[in-house]
Amino acid sequence: MTADKNYLTTSTGAPVGDNQNSLTAGQRGPVLIQDIHLLEKLAHFNRERVPERVVHAKGAGAHGYFEVTNDVSKYTKAAFLSEVGKRTPMFIRFSTVAGELGSADTVRDPRGFAVKFYTEEGNYDLVGNNTPVFFIRDAIKFPDFIHTQKRHPQTHLKNPNAVWDFWSLSPESLHQVTILMSDRGIPATLRHMHGFGSHTFKWVNEQGEGVWVKYHFKTEQGIRNLDPKLAAQIAGDNPDYHTEDLFRAIERGEFPAWKLYVQIMPLADADTYRFDPFDVTKVWSQKDYPLIEVGRMVLNRNPENYFAEVEQVTLSPGNFVPGIEASPDKMLQGRLFAYADAHRYRVGANHNALPINKPQCPVHNNQRDGAMRPDNNGGSGVYYEPNSYGGPTEAPQHRISAFPVTGTADSVAYDRDDHYTQAGDLYRLMSEPERAYLIDTIVGAMKPVERDDIKLRQIGHFYKADPEYGRRVAEGLGLPVPQGE
After folding, report:
1. pTM
2. Would you give the DSSP letter of residue 25?
3. Which one from 56, 199, 242, 419 is the annotated catalytic residue?
4. Which of 84, 117, 203, 426 could lock 76 by a disulfide, CB 3.0 to 4.6 Å apart?
């Protein structure tokens, strides 16, 4: 076999002599079990799919870079944000939330907006959505919420009864429901939508001083959305429309870009702000905490292999770097565990050693062995700490910043339960055509709900946000506004 010939081989590198015909006993067979190429080929085919993500299954991704355009070093010591002009390679995965891997791109659903920055201090993942808020604010409710978005266990059909029953019993969802049912519920493309970190995080500077922070990615392509009828048509004609659009745009050299801004809140303000700043169902007013420019993200390279990169990329909000830390956000606290655990189940314990996830800086730890270890498994190096043999040691200078913890251990809700002001403010900001669109969408989504008590309960939430909001939904459904609202 000549070295320059592109021969087909087995996974062990042996050349394949015949890839058209199985090895048989005579012309008719039967097939011989010694046809190792056939057995390997069929066995691998049976195992080509890793389990799809429970949420965010359908996605698209791209490589690019992040460039700092404004000095924010007084807020954070994160090295990749340390100086204007500094560029950091990154990968982004966009996704729908509720649908399966083969679902249509143009459904009404939040979009995942998950960015992996390959920094010199390790990978930093910002795993957010195209909305600044979420449906729930405590991770203990997340499995139940996602179950309502999935299929009925008997009919295997989507279940609007479960969707609206859960939302009507979880009034904290009202803000996100209003956004989802608005004209921004179906982005025209992945390039024409904003992205948000959604949660509150903590930035810490070189002096150990901290601030609370929220992330906003503003698309430079402008906001564009799809009319529901056109979205439904595209779902039938080209269910991979968003995936194709992103790939073709980058292929043409039309590199999508976003400006990154942050809102900064002094630590002490968390105790006095009119909304709990750690409640992910709420936003911070930009009048109170204006946007501060940080940098620019540009997507300029398509994946070479969808499975190896888009499907096997593993992003977790728990992947921090020095200078960026968690906040007490209860939803975030649950995600710190759940996302990495999902990756360990879905891709394997060594998922961070795969090329798409591997940090572009040296990695030193004592995590050894496990299935599908793709590197040298630490070689003959020291495999425990502390040690007397020059192995890697802890770095006290990178301890997280101290924070006070008080109170009695108990299962308690946030102490501020105003779920209506921000949803009502959003409704009142809308123009009349935007309000009409919102009402029509909600009415259309609620009509299939079989029980009037569920509809009436949800109408009550709309009414509390804004009386006109509730009345118009009630009129569209032919139901009265609940008495006493």
Report:
1. 0.93
2. S
3. 56
4. 203
Nearest partner of 326 among 199, 463, 149, judged by Cα: 199
**Alpha-carbon gap, residue 88 to 113, rounded angstroms:** 18
Two tokens, residue 75: 């807020």
**Residues 147, 344: contact at Cβ < 8 Å?**
no
In the annotation, is 129 catalytic? yes
Catalogue all structural domains in the chain, each as residue range(s) with its CATH number.
21-50 (no CATH), 59-134+186-356 (2.40.180.10), 421-477 (no CATH)
Catalytic site residue from 37, 63, 123, 129: 129
Terminal alpha carbon distance of the chain: 82
The answer to whether 398 is a known catalytic residue is no
Using DSSP bridges, classify how beta strands 210-219 and 257-266 pair: parallel, antiparallel or unpaired.
antiparallel
pLDDT digits (tens), the chain, 485 positions: 445 578 888 888 888 899 899 999 998 889 999 998 998 888 888 888 899 999 999 999 999 999 999 999 999 999 999 999 999 999 999 999 999 999 999 999 999 999 999 999 999 999 999 999 999 999 999 999 999 999 999 999 999 999 999 999 999 999 999 999 999 999 999 999 999 999 999 999 999 999 999 999 999 999 999 999 999 999 999 999 999 999 999 999 999 999 999 999 999 999 999 999 999 999 999 999 999 999 999 999 999 999 999 999 999 999 999 999 999 999 999 999 999 999 999 999 999 999 999 999 888 888 888 888 888 888 898 888 888 998 888 888 888 898 888 888 888 888 888 999 999 999 999 999 999 999 999 999 999 999 999 999 999 999 999 999 999 999 999 999 876 55
- At residue 209, the 3 state secondary structure works out as coil
Cα(379)–Cα(376) distance, rounded to whole angstroms? 5
